[in-house]
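INTERNAL TRANSFER SHEET
From: sequence group
To: structure group
Subject: ABC transporter domain-containing protein

Please process the attached sequence and return the structure record in the designated field. Keep the field labels unchanged so the import script can parse them.
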Amino acid sequence: MNAAEWHAACDRRLAELGVDPREARRLADDSAAEALASGLHPAELFGPATAYATSLASAARQPLAAPLARARGPVVLRLAGVTKRYRRREVLRGVDLVLRGGEVAAVVGANGSGKSTLLGVCAGSVKASGGTVERAARIGYAPQQHGVAPYLTPDEHFRLFGAVHGMGARKAVATGTRLAAGLGWRPRDTVAGKLSGGTQQKLNVVLGELDRPDLILLDEPYQGFDQDSYLDLWAQVYAWRDAGAGVLVVTHLLHDLDKVDHVLELQGSEDR
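Return from structure group:
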């Protein structure tokens, strides 16, 4: 099955499962575009088309626990009039957001609207062309691509990232293993490049959480997840929120928007 056939099968299966045809097409388009950007066949990134479509449709139907009334903490991220240009192309224009500890915000928009660029700006890995960005000192960032080293095992990742945060090797591995269990994953002595796409994403999320940051940035972290892993992830998001962290997550699942405190919709032409 080539990429175009995978796309058609995903679109068709979503429609068969009762997803609105326009939403089904958008989900299939976004998935195919993400695979193209990563240089992988969609099946390599997400698995078989029908199975992936079934997981997406199930996630959209699955009720998540509504957030409880709770105290908000201090501001952990403030964006004011943020813009980003690459030569003559404007990717972000006048983006504003205030996110406090104990809140979850979702970033949505069409493929190419600048979602990944915005998270890079928030993390400090991409420099804004204009506006102001204020962020907490302790940040966890799980990018959509290139978040793990293919020739290192999970434990080696934990030790490396832990050292950056001043953690001893034993504590870093123990912490990483405990956090992985929250996502239904038991790390083994296998290099990251041989892990499935979904498991690599779990490793990516764990590394972002390793030092209990005040601000957690997640760029479509559930790629390749099955239904249980998807629910485990959102349980983790709510646990971070309840512990006082602010969470900013890029998502293309409209169902996710019912359970967040803020929704930031981007309009743009291309996300590079």
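Handover comment: Residues 63-68 have pLDDT under 50 and may be disordered. Residues 3-61 form one domain.
Transfer complete.
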